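protien #1 (seq + structre)
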Amino acid sequence: MNPNEDLIEAALQVQLNSRSKYSGFSVGCAIRLAAGDVYTGCNIESVSFGLSNCAERVAIGVLISAGVDPSLVSEILVVGPDLVDCTPCGACRQVLSELVPHATIWFRHGGQWVSRNVLDLMPDALEASLKTFE
């Protein structure tokens, strides 16, 4: 099974805005709400690499900045350059597991489209550990 073409196209389109001067690895992300609206983000790098922002976190930031409740997110799609394999990094997995744990995420792995539940990518997210301290 593959994601809908419109979600792929939205991620590819925003990927063109990537600021990936240092890695040369442009990433685009498209997030679909249950109602069908799509929000996008691309990676933005800094020479101080730790200050860079991944496409997934930019897209979720755009969505939240627009006043959208993250619980309305149904699916997320991530693309790398030329549709090479590209999965969310650990930081993105953590943020997505906190904000949109119920969502389906699409990415390329082994040259194929793969879909997973966000929590499957981060089964022992930090939030779960913090609950023991409440």
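ok now protien #2
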Amino acid sequence: MQLLLDDPDTLQVYTGSRTPHAALDPRETPFSFDLEDEASIAEAAGMIAQDGCLDLVFIATGLLHDGPDFKPEKSWRMQDPEAYQRAFAVNATGPALVGKHFLPLLNRNERSVFAALSARVGSTSDNRLGGWHAYRASKAALNMIVRNFAIELSVRNTNAIAVTLHPGTVDTALSEPFQVRVAPEKLFTPEQAARHLLAVVAQLEAEDSGYLIAWDGQKIDP
């Protein structure tokens, strides 16, 4: 968000979260919503629609673990229906509902982008280790959902691009338990990751729509 505000060409930034902070800039409008509550997503979209169209919608959400009862599975024996429901709610269904209400707000007259954070582990062709069943499946579902969005946008809004983005391993609470084997140069700070992804977004072209794209601009096979 701060990187967008640092850009003098940015006119307005809407920052949504469950517990919005105070605005850090006159061009920022914080708002509250719950990714698991469609009514709150629709309300936020309605509020923003009053101000006009959007050039970028960026969904920066993800859930890999949440306490002792929800953590990546090492075996099929560890699968749990509640873990699947929670993972899909945050990693797939929530972003899908954001798309439902925010895709119509994308600029129709100039290039616009709908982007959602995904993960390389959501690629079936790149899966060499197995495990992490609920997370992998929910991110694979997200990749498919955004691919569907891209196909529909190609008819409804030809200036719009929809992609999922793999940020690499970022030094956050999500990745903290799994950083031991990550090379220091491949462990990015949140600011580094944000810079990488905004650089990718800036270079996106129509033929990229529907793909999962890594932080370095490389397309990842589904």
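The mean pLDDT is 91.
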